[in-house]
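Exercise 7.
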Amino acid sequence: MEIFALNSTKRRWLILPLLIAALFFAGCNLQVINLTPTSMKANPSGTYTISVQILKKRASTVIDGTIRPEIIIDGASSSMTLAPGSDDIWEYDYEMPQGRNSASYYVIVKYDIKANDGFRTKEAFIDVTPLTVEQRYSVELEVDRAPVGTKVAILGRGFDSTDKVTVGGIPAPARLESATSLAFYVPSLDPGRNYEVKVLGPRGEINAGTLRIDASQIYVTPGSISLTTGQRMPVIFHIPDPAPPGGLRIRVRTDVPKSVIMDVVTIQAGMKSTSVPVEGGLPGVGNLFVEVPGYSEVVVPVSVQ
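Solution. The predicted structure, written as tokens, is:
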């Protein structure tokens, strides 16, 4: 019996708040909905619109034209006004004080209802709500796909020279163009895939979006190489876009290593091509395989006599 009594007491305590809430809402004539996000992106004017929607409930006794919403923010009370073209959305333009990026506010809605003696004034409200302004954020990538080596801009706000960019977790050469634009060069990654682009800095990490890397093409001139032992020939490697900061290293393999003598191939930053001498070694017939992640492989036939 004692256990039953305890359980009954618990149920009464659980039901009581629900009954109070039900009575409260049953007596409400208005529904007040906060349409304002708790976090907004900083803008040059420093003004942020706080909006609420005020709906009359069915069988409401609210007298038309008596709804009077007020916002209390920074200790001051201000009237809200109807949004242009709306009859139930009310707005207030709040100017965030310089040097601050957050505030708190609440809204009180006064209205009149019909009564036997004429009318009565009642209130509805939105409880205290925080508002934060993001001073640093990414809006979008300038493009959503690009080949290796392409310069791509990240558009946003709050960028500085300490920010770094990664594409698929790989560092990408980046350059600050302004507080609202950060450019990077697409690193050598496998084409045909989507990669997450992130901005990393002392003030945290920002997800800038997804970039799809398309295959690009390396052009090699001449298209075939014929040498005699000891003979040298210039071979030109050309790419469509300027090489990124740090340059673009090109991997060249061959299946006749004793027949081909050549230096490491690198296209310098900002350049589209480079010329590298190839010298004939021992006689042999094979190929050069030109490879860079993100570029289509090029096969160049080689013959040394």
